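**User:** My hope is that you can spare some time for a protein that puzzles me. As I understand it, each token names a local backbone shape. I would be glad if you read both lines and explained how they fit together. The protein I mean follows directly.
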Amino acid sequence: MNESPPVSTVVSFAIHEEAKGFLERMQSVHRMQCANFAEYRGLCSSIHSGPDRPVLVILTGIGAMRATVAAADVIKLYRPRLWVAAGFAGGLTENLRALDMVVARQVIDDASGAIVDTHPERFPLRPAQQGSTHFGNLISVLNVVRTAEAKQQLGIRSGAIACDMESYALAKTCREFGVQFQAARVISDTVHETLPREIETIVKQESFARRLGAAAGAIWARPSAASELWNLHERSWEAAQRLGAFLSHSVLSNLEVSLDSPETRQRDE
């Protein structure tokens, strides 16, 4: 890879549907498709009253393998100081409602039980954000946890409050390269909600066009799936907007302070 200018902060999502709420809050955005990821470089324009801040947004693709490859490539290319893994998550506990935010204390690999600490105390929240934001463990799974029963069992077994598919792979890669890591996820489905069975096929598609085609095929095969998938689409839009607002107004502004702290500067030296 060619030498590229370093960036201080990377915010990653698996797919564009998760990222669009944050991308809409950025200015002067330039997109580039790379071999193992898509990148959006621009200015975050909603961080309190300070100047616009350059941010690199990365779409890794769905799943641990894609996340690992993308993260390694990005870190080697841009040498970021901080990586924020963002996106959707399934709730695993009673007190998490749809559109609540989860900030990870630890990220767990469901397959191996391995854990990466994320130190969320470095990034305090504004009082207005605290009511619908939860701190706890996040567990990364290999496949979508679709049913309410499976989510309840996973929460009891792991002690995690939410699940996703990429955060552990990203956290592990960042630890290996010495990059600070944090995960902030929005709850897209609660512990009591069962997702349409077609979602397992849809999320395996690598592009938006293919996911759209898979959804159309699902409706053709099971017409009653139309309303379920439409409700999921609307929830996804709301979740992306909630996540975008949280990242721009809360997390990134506090991370800017954290990255410039004497403790961080000493650790980086």
In short: Residues 261-269 have pLDDT under 50 and may be disordered. The first strand starts at residue 9 and ends at 13. Strands lie at 9-13, 26-33, 38-44, 53-59, 82-91, 101-109, 115-117, 133-140, 162-164, 180-189.
